[in-house]
Amino acid sequence: MTAFLPLVLHALAYGSILALAAQGEVIAERAGVINLGVEGLMALGAVMAVLAADASLSPWLGCLAALITGSAGALVLGLATVNGSANQTLCGVALTFLGLGLSAVLGHAVAGLPVSAIFGSWSVPGLSRLPGIGPVFIQSPFVYLAFIILPITCHCLLFRTRLGLSLRAVGENPAAADAVGIPVRRYRLWAVVTGGALAGLAGADMTLSVMPVWSEGMIAGRGWIAVALVIFCGYRPVFAAASALLFGLVMSLSFFGQAQGWPIAPAVLNMTPYLGTIMFMILPALVLPGMRRLMAAPAALGIPYFREER
Amino acid sequence: MSLSFSKGLTRRRLLAAAGCAGLPLRAGAATRFAPIAEEDLLVGFGHTSPVNDGGWTQMHDKAIRALKDHFPRMRSLYVESIPYSADATRIFRQFVAEGAQMVISTSDYGDFIKDVANQAPDVGFLECDGNNVTGNLGWYYITHWYASYVIGIAAARLSRNGRLGYIASFPTTSVIASANATLLGARSVNPEATMRVISINSWFDPQAAASAGAALIDSGCDFLCGIMDDPGYLRVAQERGVWAAMWNTDMRQFGPDAYVSSVMLDFVAYYRQTIEARIAGRWRPAGTFLTLGHGVDRDAWGARVPLAIQREADAARDRMLAGWSPFTGPIKDSKGQVRVPAGQTMTDMEIFHWNWQVEGVSGLV
């Protein structure tokens, strides 16, 4: 166990990034909007968190800046796709490119420099002193948020409240939802904005906790992996957090394997996260054919809603 | 990864082609680079990463800024973050179209720059880490392996268990030479020393470098070195209480207790001489190595490196400055085969093209 402890710690830290972004995407997709701008929103959140934390010397304000940036970016996407009924795929990809480019410009001056104010580790009283596995319970606030607070909150919100029922109805059958008086567009817009805020927060997790430095291209496809995880986890927040952890583990394997001298080429080990994405997409469908219906996407996912076509 | 692989192929093919052609210098090369007034000179610089990357490109940019003090009327332009693709050809062609008489690329662009050079025979081209010498294209590089060897000696003395960790970008010859030289230096004082390498597929990726550094420390290494433009793994070394040696520039502010030294680059003198020669009409395409003390050196030792260790490592540096080469046989590869027989010394060109890892290095090739 102790030999694998570094692997687990690394997986928790890197998995938390994916977990935050993926759960945000679950909320947006449950309402029927596919946000492909996660990668760009994460990049913007990451750079704004650094700039705000450097200026204010407070990681909390850095976090707030990332939340606001993520929300604002998603609001643009929401207005275009929900209110403007624009194509969600195109707008999402455009947002990704906008986010990546804009973050490179904004972060030019701070690239490679250490961030002035970052989050430390919080330990769980009692558990953190357990022999052997104690360090697992000394984590940054993002890890607790991503793996405990957010999955529980999102799950209860989506499946145990009227609000959640309405949100899912909007994603499954907006016409029916509209008929019973649910404001479809308002629900969709708020879901996208919430998802964007969490994507921004995932960026802040990277620069204010996991590795406190900004560099261009640092998101490195994690936003796309988060989008893939949402499909893999069947649009369920708890599964999203769990699969993010699994993915964090896969991503950590590359460094762990090379350091341990596994007889696998470094190039192959560096491919594991991307190979893993493909595997995780294919495997469930092959192993459990009945899963397909259970894990299906919301019926109205990606389709703009026009009241006139009801 | 695919980039470096195709680069390797290109380089090999180029070398073969150069070998067949016997590198004929075209007649008329002497008149081609006629003297030019300083105010008429336009020099284009092409960089592989941003000029504030904190490492390789920043050191080149620093030297280019210093040029402005010497040649205030010279005009220069630069493009940063040039990809290893046909875009590079387009950008170098743009320099020529702007009227540049000298084009200097601070990284190896192989065919992408050679094509442009062939089409603009009156423009002088220089490529750092390049391999081609034609009628108007030359290259320059630093013999960083001597500095790495000096740092390797300190590494073996500072490490408690003789296990060094190396954070590599790609398994290219420069990286192999750097890792090999460091371990050979270490083995000169501790024959049991070993080196574990992690490749992270980037020259500038603080996140990956830090993760790799942490993984190396977890696996028992207590001295980190590497070839990164950012201080990512130095910060990890500082946090975890192990030593670290860097590349490119003085990064001690990011880990003052962990910092040992750095392979320091200084292109100021070389760029000045090159521009002087071009203005005077003396510039000719050639391959140039910037030697120890003249473009590359170890950085001033870290605050916590004991004086005795500094002296021991510097003694080897003094010998190298006097002409001694530590890259003398027998040198075995990681499979135990003798690759450099006893008594034979590797030339700088052989070290520049080093493509096998020495005994004790694992995980690189």
TrEMBL record, chain A:
Record localization: Cell membrane
Transmembrane annotation, as ranges: 31-53, 60-82, 94-122, 142-160, 189-211, 223-251, 271-288
Keyword set includes RNA-binding: no
InterPro entries: ABC_transp_permease
Topology term for the membrane: Multi-pass membrane protein
Subcellular location, principal: membrane
Keyword Ribonucleoprotein (UniProt): no
Keyword terms, alphabetized: Cell membrane, Membrane, Signal, Transmembrane, Transmembrane helix
PANTHER family: ABC TRANSPORTER PERMEASE PROTEIN, SUGAR ABC TRANSPORTER INTEGRAL MEMBRANE PROTEIN-RELATED
Protein name, UniProt field: Inner-membrane translocator
UniProtKB/TrEMBL annotation, chain B:
A Pfam family reported for this protein in Swiss-Prot or TrEMBL: Bmp
Signal sequence region: 1-29
Keyword annotations: Lipoprotein, Signal
Keyword Lipoprotein: yes
Record bears the keyword Kinase: no
Membrane-spanning segments: none
Top-level taxon in the UniProt lineage: Bacteria
Domain ABC transporter substrate-binding protein PnrA-like: 47-284
InterPro entries referenced in this protein's UniProt entry, alphabetically: ABC-Purine-Binding, PnrA-like, TAT_signal
Record protein name field: Basic membrane lipoprotein
Top-level taxonomy: Bacteria, Pseudomonadati, Pseudomonadota, Alphaproteobacteria, Acetobacterales
